[in-house]
Amino acid sequence: MDSLKKELEEELKLSTDDPTSHAWYHGPLRREAAESLFERDGDFLVRDSNSAPGNYVLSCFWKNGPMHFKIIRVILRPKKGYSRELFQFEEDRFDNVPALIRFYVGGRRPISQASGAVIFNPITRSVPLRVIIERQTDSSSSISSIKGSDREKYNQASKRRSFSSAHNDALQIINPLLRSGSQPSNLENVGRRPSLQSAQSDSNLRTGVQQNTKQENTGPAPISPVFRTGSEPLLSPRPRHSRPAFPGGGVTLRGSDGQLHTRAPPKPLRVSVLFPNSIPPPPRDRNVDPSSYYDELVVQVPQKIGHVDRLRAEEKWQSRARLTETSFGFLEAEKNEESLQLPALPQKKAEVEDWHFEKPHVETVSCFHLDQFESLLLPENNRPLEPGVLLALKELFNRSNADITAMHMLSVDCQVARIVGVTDEQKRIMGVGSGLELVTLPHGRQLRQDLLERHHLIALGVAVDILGCTGTVSQRSTVLHKLILLAQALKDHAHNLYSFSAVMKALDLPQITRLEMTWRALRRNHTETAVLFEKKLKPFMNMLNDGDDSVVHGPSAVPHLVPLLMAMEGDDPVENSERGCQLLYDVLQSARSAALHAQDYQQHAHTLLTAGSWEPVPELLEAFRTEFALRLFWGQTGATASREERYEKFDMILSVLSDKLEPVELTPRQPEPLT
């Protein structure tokens, strides 16, 4: 067991881009063995495809049943001597399989829109892959030793039960491009009709439906909801007698063949064009399905919709519009006037006259109004960093624990970011429903600048709290200990990644990191807190800055917006990164996800703030307002100066305070020897 454990540890130390380095990868594990490992919804693992070597299968458990999805390995060869490997799943392509898993696990995104399956609990292997391979080999040899009728019974028992008796003979393939989970990577066999047997690979075929050899052919059968080679329905029913003869047999397309067309063929329609009445129509309620604003090929009169609904409608429409880029001869042959009748454009003149486009208002003035700010803590015409105010703040913070303080910060952040308490008038001015959508749009520039300003001021406030402690080193380490606990509360209790990143930014300022004696005292007096900061919070922050949402488990109230804000305001967040374009892509993808799920963030933030587990304190709420920080740091008159000037001067003040606490030890210069 020790040798197996060491061998497994060596596998897990490999490159993170290699599936072998992840415990959720089980190598050549068979389908039946994978299903036996599942216990509850969300369980998943990745294994090798038995039917298509070189590809992978994502196996999961959802709604009391196992599901299997093919991950296609695609090799691009744009020119001789150069190739690139990608892994395609649904409509997305990834550089490697671990990136695919991080994408779906981190964002809790459904891996299939049809089933709604979500994966979040990996089934890890406890032995090295060599042992799994040996077990599968032994299992294969035991099956081959079964003779005669026993072997036939064994094969029948292990055969996939994917069709009911009514569907067994009615389903025929109308798409000559056999897809497995995503776009095919080999167009060598276009024009051939794949055989039914070759389509039954490691796909999303549910087991447990008893096969029946009795055939019923009473007419066209309805579309089977279980015959799938990926996560979307790809097959349409046709009577057996209408099937045209094809001379060639079907060959399963595999991503490892590496022969690609200049453009990947489009994904077939989710709703059958040839048989519009064979499945129930999609919901027409615009609140349920935003794509209902568009019919098949004929656009209806648009109604006033939000930015998120527009994004969702674009995604569904673009997936359908791709069909116009490729000509399918077999579709032309199947065309008939009755099935392809298009609905007439509704002529509702009254509705058209009632609807009108209203241009969003472009804000040019900050939402922080210093002239209207009335303070309970600051005197009139206060000076910068007034000692009496700093002392009152320290006593105020000492009366509240980390969780209560984090909830006060969440309350103010949600108001500034326009996540909660957004009025209808604000929505009309913005043109969207929340600030999470506005920051991704061109006319959201002022809100982006305000959020960057607030984020920096929170970091400066944390730095002042540490550097303003002129007591002993042990007292300073206690302040550092409380701030680290505040960061943890913002992350785990308030689910506020915006303020969490601001606190972590402060702890990483050069004026703070140079306090070696303070950090040493923290490790000595508060060891658990120091370990929490170094081993959990810092790696978590680094992953967020890299645009990796897989580290975020569960819902969030305020997402990590700073990389997007910096990128859209011209401050390149990837300038010093080796990942470059990939990092920028991850940041933009994360921002798009935040905009799409803006309502989820709003609902979760509203639930936290109205839960009744905390009581708002007016003085503490004011202490976290941005107007209060502007006047506290730069005084009544200095707060109106330019941002660059204010930041430059305050950075010098922090450096002076840091040097006073732990002066730089100068090594005396040795006199030069006389010659």
Please name the defining characteristics of this protein.
two-stranded antiparallel ribbon; 8 strands; six-stranded mixed beta sheet; alpha+beta; 675 residues; 25 helices
Question: Can you put this structure into words, describing what you see?
Answer:
This protein is α+β, with helices and mostly antiparallel strands and 675 residues long. It is built from 25 helices and 8 strands. It has a 6-stranded mixed β-sheet with strand order 5-4-3-2-1-6. Strands 7-8 form a two-stranded antiparallel ribbon. Strand 1 and strand 2 form a beta hairpin. Helix 14 runs antiparallel to helix 15, helix 15 packs across helix 19 and helix 18 packs across helix 19. About 25% of the residues have low confidence. GO terms for molecular function: guanyl-nucleotide exchange factor activity; phosphotyrosine residue binding.
The total count of helices amounts to: 25
Multimerization status: single chain
Q: What is the radius of gyration computed over CA atoms, rounded to a whole number of angstroms? A: 31 Å
Residues in helix, %: 40-55%
Mean pLDDT rating: 74
Strand content: 5-15%
* Dominant shape: globular
Reported for the largest beta sheet, the result is: 6 strands, mixed
Structural class: alpha+beta
Report, as a whole number of angstroms, the end-to-end distance: 71 Å
Number of extended strands: 8
Biggest β-sheet: strands ordered side by side in the sheet: 5-4-3-2-1-6
InterPro entries: Ras_GEF_dom_sf, RASGEF_cat_dom, RASGEF_cat_dom_sf, SH2, SH2-Ras-GEF_adapter, SH2_dom_sf, SH2_SHEP1/BCAR3/NSP1
GO molecular function: guanyl-nucleotide exchange factor activity; phosphotyrosine residue binding
Protein name: Breast cancer anti-estrogen resistance protein 3
Keywords: Guanine-nucleotide releasing factor, SH2 domain
